[in-house]
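Our consortium's second objective concerns turning raw sequence data into structural hypotheses that experimental partners can test. To show how far this objective has progressed, the report includes one record in full. It was chosen at random from the queue rather than selected for favorable results. The single chain below, 1007 residues long, was entered without modification.
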Amino acid sequence: MNRYNSLIMKPVVEKPEGVPSRQPDVEIDKDFDVLSFVESYSDRHEVGHEMKDNEYSKQEEMLMDSAIDFVRRKATDENGPITTVNPHPKLSIAHDLVSFLLIRKAATSHLFRRHPIPSSTAPQPFPLNMFMGKWTSWTSFTLSKSKEVQPGTLQCCQLMKPGDIEVITVSNDKFVRLMGLLTGDELLMMMIWEMPDASRHWKTMTRESLLGEFMDLIPRTIWTDWDIAFLTWFGLFRRLLSNGLSFPTREVAGITVVNTPIVQDAEAFALEHSTYPIYKHVMRSWLYGVLMIHANETLSDTIDLEVHAVATLLHDLGWDTTEASPIISADRRFEIDGALAAREFIQGHQDGKFWHQRNVQLVWDAIALHTERSISYFKELDVQVVSKGIAMDFSGPAYGVLGEDYAAIAKAFPKSDLKDSVNDTIIWLCDTKPQTTYGATGKTFITSNLVSRILDDQILPSTGAAVYHFGRHELQYSLADYSLALRSITRQLVSQLPEKSTLPAQILEIIEDGLGDTESTVSILQMLGSAFCRIVIILDGVDASNESGLRELMKSLLKEKTQLRIMLTSRGPPLHTLVDAFGINTIIARATDQDLSLYHARAIDEAPVNAEVLDDSHIRLFPYQKLMDMADGRFLPIIPAWFSNIASQPNTDFLSLVESWSPNSNMDVSQAFCKALVNGIEASKHSDMILCSLYYLVHGEENGYTFTPSMLWEALIAWGIRDEDNTVFTLAQISNACADFAFIDSKTKIMKLRSSLLLDYLRNEVFDDKYHARHISATFLYLTRSDHEGACRSSQELKERLKAHPFLCSAARTLSPSLAALPSLPYDRDFLRMTTSHRSVDSYLQAAEAWPYIDEESYDEFEAEEERWRCYTKGYTPLHLAAHFGARETLIQSLVDRGDSIEAQAANGQTALHIAAEIGDSSHTVKRLLECGANVAAVDEDGLTPLAHAIVYGCLESVRLLISHGADSNALDEEDLLECSREKPDIAEFLVGLGVEMPVEESEPEE
C-alpha cells in the first residue's frame, strides 16, 4: 500500500502469441498516481468459474478498504476542490465517479497510472471515455472536458499508444485495458480484447449481461467525440437503463417507472409542498411523459429517466401556498421559484450531489419554461418531454400515448378537482404577486373572469354583476331578441341577493309563472337596482351592426337613473350614432404576445409525431418574432400539421409564408394564412371529406347547431363521399382529419372550429352556392331514407331514432332556411322523390321540431321540460310542405298535376294557401296556388283566412294577389288589423287606400 492507501496492481503486457502476462510490480515514484475503483461482486457468476484464488480475494478485500477515502467526502463539480484525500487533483471527474458508482454498486477494480508522454508524439483528437464494470455487472459512462493546456505541456488531443499509461482490470479469464492521458487534461481511451479461452464465458455474458447487450452495438475500440457523439453513445446506454437493467423500478398505475432514491424523495417533496390535487397533477404529468418516452424510440434512446422524473414531479413547487413557504418569493414568477427550489433539492440530496451539472440545468430549464411552450418545445428533448407531459394533463392523449393508457392514469389519479385547484392557485398568485402572473385574452374568458373579479373584490360594497354570451347565430334585430339574455342576467342578479332579501317574493307576486316578456324583465332589473349600490351587466358578443335593437335595449335599461353599468363586447365597433347618443366609450382589445405564444405552442403541442431529431445543419430557425408581428394581436389560424412535435420544426409552406411578410407589406395576413390552410386541405388525400366536415361546422355555427363526428359520418354518406377503397370513413378518421381545425369535447364529442378567422374565410370565400346546393340535394336524399320514415309515436321512440340517426334533426331543421337562402335552385325532382310517401313528410316535420340529440342526459332533461316529439303539425300533405318551402311555380304545378288536393287541410285546418300567404317572400307560390284554384275564403281552426295571415306575416304582393282573387278585406278582424299596423306599415297603408279603416292603438297614460 502506498501513501494514498491504494493498491499497486501489476501491469500486463502482451506476449507475441497475444496472451497477456504479468509485468513486475511498478515502483511508486513522483511520476505515478494511483486510484482504486471498488468492485461490486455479482451473484450471477457461473458455478465453477468464480474466483477462488486466495491471493486475488485478499487483493479484492484490500481494494474494498481503499475506497473509504473516496466515498466519505463532499462531492463538488468537476473543477472544484475535493474536501477529502484525492490521489491526483486532475482526476476529479474520475474521483467523483468512484463515489457515484459505489452508490450504484456497479464498479470493479481499476488502476490509474500516470506516465511521461514522449514529446515526439503527434496530437490527435481524443476525448475522455470511461468504461467500468465487471462482466456480470457492467456500467458505461462517457465524459469529456475540453480545456486549454499550459505552454510546454502536451495538447489534450494526444494519440495514445500502448505503454504510455495503462489501467488494467482482470476479471476471470478476460481483461479490459484502459489507456488514458492525464497530463494537462483528463482523457481516457478504452480498448477491449477477448481472451482466446474466454469464448464460453463471453457467450454467456453476451446472452445475460448488460455488457453483452451493449457490446453488440459498439466496436471493440471506442474513440468518442464528446460534442458530436455523446448523446448518441450515452443515450444508447440510457436506453438499456430505461429497460430496467440498472435503475430500480416500480409500477405506478400499471406503468413501469424509475425508482431511485432521488425520485422517491422528489415525489415525497412534491407531496409535502403541494395540495393533493396538484400532487395528482404532477404524478399524472410524470406518467404521461413516461408513456410518451416509451412510445417514441428517439426519446427512449435519449431521455434521462431520473432527470425527467425529478423535473416533472417538482415542476409545481412554485405553487406552494402554505403560509411562509421558503419556496415562494415576493417578486419572481412561480416557475422560477419552482426551478430554484428543485435545484436546491437536487444539490442537497445524497444522490443529486453526484449529478452532472448539465442534468441539474435540464431540470431547472424544464421547470422554469414549462408554461412557455413556445420556448420549451425548442429546447433539449428532456425539457420538451417534461413540458409536453404536463400539457397532456390538460389537453388529452398525444405523442403516441394511447387513450386507454391515458384513462388508466386518470383513474389512478383522478383529475376531477384539478380545475378548481388550478383556478384557486392562479387567483392566489394574482392576489399575492400580480405583476408576475400571466393572463388570458379570449373575450369570453375575460368577461367571465371580470364578473368573478367584481364579485370577489367588492370595491364598492353590494355590487352585483352578470354576463351573457351571445352565439354567432343570435342576432338582435329588436328588443325582443335580447329577451333570453335579460332573463339570464336577472336570474344571476337574483341569486346574488342577500338571503333575507324580500325582493324574490315581490318579483314572484308581480310576475306570475316566473318571468314574462322583455318589458317585464327590464322592470325587474330596475327593481333589483334598489338592492345593489351598483350593477354591472356584460353582454358578450352582441351584434353591433343592428343599431335599432341596440338602441331599444339601451333606452330600456338606462331609462331609470339606476347605478347601472353596461359593458358590450363585439367583433366590430358600435355605430357612431350609438356612440354619440349614449356616450359609449370604446376599447380595442388585442391578444398579448404571451397569449399568442401559448396559442402557437398549443399548435406545436398537438403536432403529429415525427421521431426524427434533425441535425443542427438541417434545422431552420423559425422567425417567431415576425410571426408575432404578423399576428398583430390576432389568433391566426395555425394548425398542428404545420409543425413536427419532436423536432418542433415548421414545414416549408408555413415557414415561407412567414418569411414572405414584412412590416411594410400589403399582405392581408389573415387572408393569407386561411388561404394557405385551405390550399393544404385541397391538396390532401381526403380533401372532400375534410371540406364537407368543415362546411357543416361553419353551417352549424352560423345557425346555432352543434355537430359531432357521428353526425358528420351520416352527412358524408349522404354526400356520397367515401374513402379510396369505396368504404365509408370511420369516426376515428373523421375526428383525426378535423382535429387540426376543430376542438372536440371529450365527453359530448361536440365539435367547434378553433379559429373564427378561418370560419369567416370559409363562409365568405370557399363555401359558395355549389356547396349549398350539394348540401340541399344530400339532405333531400337523406330524408328520403326508409329507416326513419313516418312520425314516432312516443318521446322514447323519437329519442331512439335520433340516437341512431344523429344527423336527422340538423338535416330537417336546416333544409327550409337553406332553400330560402338559395331561391334560384331547382329541387323539384328531389322534393317529389322525398314526398312520394306522406310518411316522409311527417318524419321530416317531427324531426325539425324535436330537441337535438347530443347525449341521453341532456335530451331527457329538455324533453321533461317540453315534450317536443308531439309539437309538429299533423296532416301536412306534400303541397303543404311545398308551400312551407316557398316552392317554385313548377313544383306546385307538378304536385297538382299528380293529383295532390289543393284544398287539403292539415290538423289545424290550414290549407297550402294559408301557409304560403304568411311566408314573406313567397308571393310566387301564392300566385300559382291561386291560379290552380285555391280557395281564398278557407278558414283554419282559429277562423282565420289566408288574407288574415298575410297582413300580419306575409308581404304586400301576396296581399294584393289574395284581394285581386276575391279575398274580403272588410272581413278582417280588428286585432289583426292592429297587429298589421305595428308589424307591416306598408300593408296597412295599402289597406287604408282600399278604404279599410285601421284601428288606432291607445297610448298608455304617462305617470
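The partners drew two points from this record. The chain is about 45% helix and 10% strand. The domain at 247-432 is CATH 1.10.3210 (Hypothetical protein af1432). Both points have been shared with the crystallography group to help prioritize constructs.
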